Structures are given as C-alpha cells and as structure tokens.
Amino acid sequence: MILVTGGAGFIGANFVLDWLAASDEPVLNLDALTYAGNLENLARLQGDARHVFVHGDICDRALVDRLLAEYRPRAIVHFAAESHVDRSIHGPAAFVRTNVEGSFTLLEAARAYWSALEGEAREGFRFLHVSTDEVYGSLGPADPPFAETKAYEPNSPYSASKAASDHLVRAWHHTYGLPVLTTNCSNNYGPCQFPEKLIPLVIANALAGRPLPIYGDGMNVRDWLYVGDHCAAVREVLASGRPGETYNVGGWNEMPNIEIVRTICALLDELRPDPAGAHERLITFVADRPGHDRRYAIDARKIERELGWRPAETFATGIRRTVAWYLDHQDWVAHVQSGAYRDWIAANYAGRGAGA
After folding, report:
1. Terminal-to-terminal C-alpha distance of the chain
2. 164-193 pLDDT per residue, tens
3. Who contacts 1 (Cβ-Cβ below 8 Å, separation ≥6)?
4. Domain boundaries, the chain
5. Does Transport show up as a keyword for this record (predicted)?
6. I want to staple 117 with a disulfide (CB 3.0 to 4.6 A). Which of 46, 54, 121, 262 is the partner?
C-alpha cells in the first residue's frame, strides 16, 4: 500500500485514479477536503476496496502516526498543499500552515515510522514530495529553463511556502537519512481542476458568457503539463528515482497566457459555438496581480535521461482533451462552484476591471 496525501484534489485525485487503473496496489488517501478537495473526483472508486479514504489533516500528527502504524505503507506520495498564488496573496497564513507545518509534520511522522522498519521494508521505503517550478522564481525572455540546480528565488507567499517545504525535505534526507524524492512540476491542466486556475476558469466563464479576465498584457509565459503526464512522471520517480534527488517535470510547452486563452476560445467555437459570437469577444485585460512572475520554463532533460520519462501529450492534444472533459462534466463544475467560490472570485477580481 502507498499513502497519498491530498488525493481528493486536482493532481492527487488524477494520480490515485491513474495508479489504481494501472495497479492493484491499494491507496490510503488522506485529504482534509478543503475547498479544492472534492470526493466527486474519485466517484468511480466508490466501493473499490483498493481505495481507503481518510478525511483528515496532514498537520494532525496523532492521526498520521496512527495511519502509518495501522496501514504500514511502503511509500508516502505527498501532494497535499495550498496551491493558488492569488489566494496566497490574500491569505498567506493557510499556506504556511499546510505547506510548511504540514510537510514538517509528515516528515517527522515518516522519519519515526521509517526508523522502526527493518530489512527490505526499510530499504524500500520512499517519501516523495511533489513541488512546483515556482520555487525557482521568474525567468527573462532569453534565460535558459529551470534546471534542478537553479537557485531558489520564490516571489509569492505560495512559492515561498513550497520552497520552505522543499528545503525541509532535503534537510530530512541529509540530516536523518530519510529516503526522499522531490519533483518540481510546471503548470498542470486537465480534468478535475478547480475553476480558480486559468484554464478551467476560462472554460467556465466562456460557457457562461462572462468576461475572460487576463492579467496585465497576457504575455506571462508558463510551461504547461497535462496532468496525466505528471502522474506518469511521479510513478516513474517513485519506482526508479534515486533517494535525495530532485526531478523537474515539464511539458515542453511554453506559451503566453493570452495564447492559452485564445486556443481555448477557438476550441469552444468549434465544439460549443455561442450564438452571440466568437468566444474571444469575452477577453478582458485586468490589472496585474502583485509580484506576477513573467516566465517559467522547465528543463526536463534529467528525468528523461535518468528515468526515461517524457510527456505523451502535446499541448494541442492535451487541451482538446481537457476542454472536452469540461464540456462533458458540467454537473461537476456546477457542484464545485459553490457560494464560497463565487465570493472568492468576486473578491479577487474586484477593482481589477473585470467581472466574473
């Protein structure tokens, strides 16, 4: 069995579903079910004995200790995190608590558990920490992509909290010998992503005929990674990665935000045309967010060279699959767009020059 934290969230749920589609090894899934955690993401696993869900907080040391003692997992795959930059600007405390204190709690529980293991169980145990490319800071137009050796320069409360957790993971390996692995991924997209992030927000707003808010000039560049490819990379790192190592996971898809939005609009024009006109008419430029990093890009050659992983999806294929999924799952979107979510969107975009 493996323990997955945050396995009801966007990436975590996709990972759990992919894991159980490819393997009969059970998953113990620990998730606090905050606003972005959604058991509907895992609906197809209802009644599946291979999936054990526990509603709980990674900051609860007693709970984590009990789960490790009871289920004896061979690995921990740590996805649980607060992950939205805008939310971190409005309320950084939650990011420090979950991303820093929660990771510390998990590391200490894992260290105690691993230290008591013997033989092959101790030798084979792994703690895999899933992080982000945002810890590396921002790139200029001509700068090389982020390699694993790039110095950390986090610029938002979110990325600073993730950088802190990365450093804790590294320290627990070098100080205590805990067999850790770290992945730093680029921007994920795909099914079940909470509609505060760019791609699902644009799809939801476009279908509703609402403005498509674009920060600044829309030329902030990101590398885009289809979530299924990310899940495959995490599985490969868990299986074959070298303890203590970091692996950058990227999609080799650098694109400015405005191009992403126009691509989505074109797909919606094809798949769900609006009688009122082309969806691009809804694009609205709004005031930029504070400290907005200009460009991220991932150099994913190490994971390809050492572990043989490379993304299977191009952006063209991945974004078409993603738009189609949201069109086919409008009930899911309606359920997650609660009153609390609508209040958040209104607060975040208030004064920026666009409604939501």
Report:
1. 43
2. 999 999 999 999 999 999 999 999 999 999
3. 25, 26, 27, 28, 71, 72, 73, 74
4. 2-188+225-251+293-313
5. no
6. 121
The predicted pLDDT at position 269 comes to 98
In the numeric block, the tokens 């999806």 are attached to: 313
Chain centroid, CA 45 distance in Å: 21
Q: Please name the helix (run of DSSP H) or strand (run of DSSP E) that holds residue 285, with its range, or none.
A: strand 283-286
User: Is 133 known to be catalytic?
Assistant: yes
Collapse the DSSP code of 338 into the 3-class scheme (helix H, G, I; strand E, B; otherwise coil) and give the result. coil
Q: Smallest Cα–Cα separation from 237: which of 153, 166, 160, 180?
A: 180
Number of C-beta neighbours around residue 282 at 10 A:
21
Catalytic-role residue among 82, 133, 166, 229? 133
Look up the CATH number of domain 2-188+225-251+293-313.
Answer: 3.40.50.720
Structure-block tokens of residue 215? 């920060």
pLDDT tens-digit readout, 122-156: 999 999 999 999 999 999 999 999 999 999 999 99
The one catalytic residue among 82, 134, 236, 254: 134
Look up residue 191 and give its amino acid: P
**Which residue carries 């145990």 as its tokens?**
125
- 256 forms bridges with which residues in the sheet? 221
Distance CA 343, CA 201 (A): 14
Catalytic residue among 31, 82, 136, 158: 158
